[in-house]
Amino acid sequence: METRPPLPPFTRDSAVQKVRLAEDAWNSRDPARVGLAYSLDTRWRNRAEFVQGREQAVAFLQRKWGREIEYRLIKELWAFESHRIAVRFAYEWRDDSGQWYRSYGNENWEFGDDGLMSLRLASINDKPIAESERKFHWPQGRRPDEHPGLSELGL
């Protein structure tokens, strides 16, 4: 049986760990790696797009990171209970014309006993920003531990 620790039911510490592991994976921008965190029959609502299954999730991420260049993400735990976690997040990216954006959102996650995410509901808004307004400046990949989180950045 495939498992993805930490496993539910979540404690505050294990929920924080699960959120950081998700942030790290998404910052890798590796759709196949990210896809391993989701059940084979995962269901997503991402903005107005609906995804069914791990294969569609991976294809979605390939399209996403094809257009969201220099993507950097910070996630923060908002709430948790048993098999569910709610997060808030912000990410910065630019499009192929050089316009920068900060995208803000909330996600509700539900996990099976195996720790794989079976449901992901994401609401996201994009705000165009000037390059000088960027706050996420670490090298592409995992956010360094010493880099401030959303609350510390006032986001």
Tell me what you see in this structure.
- There is one protein chain.
- This protein is an alpha+beta fold and 155 residues long.
- It is 23% helix and 40% strand.
- It is built from three helices and six strands, in the order H-H-E-E-H-E-E-E-E.
- It has helices at 12-28, 31-35, 54-67, and strands at residues 38-46, 49-52, 69-81, 84-94, 100-111, 117-129.
- A six-stranded mixed beta sheet has the order 2-1-6-5-4-3.
- It starts with 11 loop residues before the first helix and ends in a 26-residue tail after the last strand.
- The relative contact order is 0.20.
- The mean pLDDT is 98.
In terms of topology, how is this protein built?
Elements: H1 12-28, H2 31-35, E1 38-46, E2 49-52, H3 54-67, E3 69-81, E4 84-94, E5 100-111, E6 117-129
Parallel strand pairs: 1-6
Antiparallel strand pairs: 1-2, 3-4, 4-5, 5-6
What value does the average pLDDT take? 98
Order of helices and strands: HHEEHEEEE
User: In which range does the helix fraction lie?
Assistant: 10-25%
Spans where pLDDT lies below 50 across 5 or more residues: none
Globally, the shape reads globular
